[in-house]
Amino acid sequence: MARLICTIAIISIALMCVLAEEEKYNDKYDNVDPVAILANEKLREQYYNCFMAIGPCVTADQKFFNELISEAFQTQCKKCTERQKYMLDTISDWYTKNQPEKWNRFVAKSIEDMKKKAKQ
Predict the structure, then answer these.
(1) What is the pLDDT along the chain (120 residues), one digit of tens a residue?
(2) CA–CA dist 26, 102 (Å, integer)
(3) In a domain, 85, yes or no
């Protein structure tokens, strides 16, 4: 009987781990075009200011991505959909090539946000 309980417990833990790995962020805003945003200076600055908490998050997708971007960045998009991975890669590539100082500030803020979240 003890073996059966132990086996059930191990299977349950394994299933929980598999299910946890399959958890993905909501794909509601996967249709956002990062290339178009990056090409539009006003829109690009609006998103950046939202993510950096130096300006308001104006649109619903900005608010959504702002809630998860630090975690997504820090976990290398572990819970991202394929489209979200593409978006983060596109944004990362653009900023590292075109505005590396802003990218470095974003990375620093992301790390700080995750430290704060870990302390909670």
Answers:
(1) 556 454 454 554 544 554 455 699 999 999 999 999 999 999 999 999 999 999 999 999 999 999 999 899 889 999 999 999 999 999 999 999 999 999 999 999 998 888 887 787
(2) 27
(3) yes
Q: Is residue 8 part of a domain?
A: no
Name the nearest CA neighbour of 71 among 63, 80, 62: 80
| Residue 54, domain CATH | 1.10.2080.10
pTM comes to 0.77
Q: Could you identify the residue written with the tokens 């790390």? A: 111
Contact (Cβ atoms closer than 8 angstroms) between residue 106 and residue 52: yes
